[in-house]
Amino acid sequence: MKKIQLSDPLTFSAIAQGYWRLDGWDFTTSDLVSHMRACIDLGVTTFDTAEVYGDTICEILMGEAFRQDPSIRKQVQLVTKTGIFKQMVNGKTFGYYDTTYNRVVRSCKESLQRLGTDHIDLYLIHREDPCFDPWETGRALLDLKKEGLVLEIGVSNFDPFKFEALNQAVNGELVTNQIEWNPIQFEHFNSGMIDYLTARKIHPMAWSPLAGGRIFSKDDERAVNAMAKITEIAKRHDVEPVTVIYAWIMYHPVGAVPVVGSSRIDRLALAVDALEVHLEHYEWYEIYVASRQQVLR
Ligand SMILES: NC(=O)c1ccc[n+]([C@@H]2O[C@H](COP(=O)([O-])OP(=O)(O)OC[C@H]3O[C@@H](n4cnc5c(N)ncnc54)[C@H](OP(=O)(O)O)[C@@H]3O)[C@@H](O)[C@H]2O)c1
Fold first, then answer.
1. Quick check: 58 and 20 in contact, CB under 8 A?
2. Contact 149, 96 (CB under 8 A)
3. Which of 104, 179, 197, 218 is the right S-S partner for 202, CB 3.0 to 4.6 Å?
4. Are strands 11-13 and 16-18 parallel, antiparallel or unpaired?
């Protein structure tokens, strides 16, 4: 498996497995252990989760798997995130962000407990927080690194301004921005984030590479247009259309790591197949404009 080096001490597999939907997979702990082992057998050793996934259940389930087979944790790079919270207000659930010093430090220690591990390989601030002091959040992340509780730090869903602000506060130590990127989602091209990361040689992680399954929707015109072109390109290369999508994401010079969300190992294998697909340069642009959201000037 090809590797992507995020920093001196941290190297990811070129494809990562995401466990956001794990609480809906109806897996026993043994099923999850088998799933994780199958990922590792395919060379996919980078696992993504977050404290908010399943309201902490996903971290708990992963921790149970690591306890049942302690050899797994030693073979993988574990990514988790903090910053999104829910609270009952006047009988209704209210979602908000909290990236204050105490919250970040407490969340990290709670994640370590749930995951049954002594360190997290990459700890991310999950979303841009509009009420955010980069110096305070940065101090929390640096303290966690100093204590050895996290190996590296990064963010998710940040725009270039917030990324720059936090990166200044941590002396340039952010190693990724985990962003939504797929053939119908171009937010980070349009914000300049992709150019920002490419120029600084910072590798993003690409979440929802298949738009959370919406890429297959027949009711979404953008998806229908994109898939028509992707299917045509897949026939040229004699591979599955989804394989072309992963190849398209990985073709870009920013060196992104797609985070696969499927519960199925055969579908993860379709992502791994993309490492052998060599798109023509013009084919990248065919997909870029296929959903008709992007134009080439
Ligand atoms: N940082 C963030 O804010 C953020 C947000 C969302 C997600 N993420 C991360 O990104 C990961 C991936 O996100 P995602 O789950 O939305 O990814 P995705 O790969 O775009 O979508 C996966 C969904 O598509 C379905 N699917 C249908 N056909 C498929 C096929 N041929 N191949 C693969 N999947 C197919 C899967 O169902 P089956 O299980 O039945 O295959 C699954 O429900 C998450 O697990 C999480 O780790 C991060």
1. yes
2. no
3. 197
4. unpaired
Residue 181 Cα to ligand 1 midpoint, Å, equals 12
Pocket of ligand 1 (CB under 6 A): 18-21, 48, 126, 156-157, 178, 207-213, 216, 242, 259-264, 267
Domains (range + CATH), the chain: 3-217+252-279 (3.20.20.100)
Place 297 in a pLDDT band, splitting at 50, 70 and 90: confident
Amino acid 231: pLDDT: 98
Mean of per-residue pLDDT scores for the chain? 97
pTM above 0.85, yes or no: yes
And the tokens for 244? 């072309």
Rounded Cα distance, 108 and 95, in Å: 19
For 187, the token pair is 């937010």
Choose one of 21, 82, 240 to mutate for the ligand 1 pocket test, by most ligand atoms within 8 angstroms of C-beta: 21
Give pLDDT, residue 279. Answer: 98
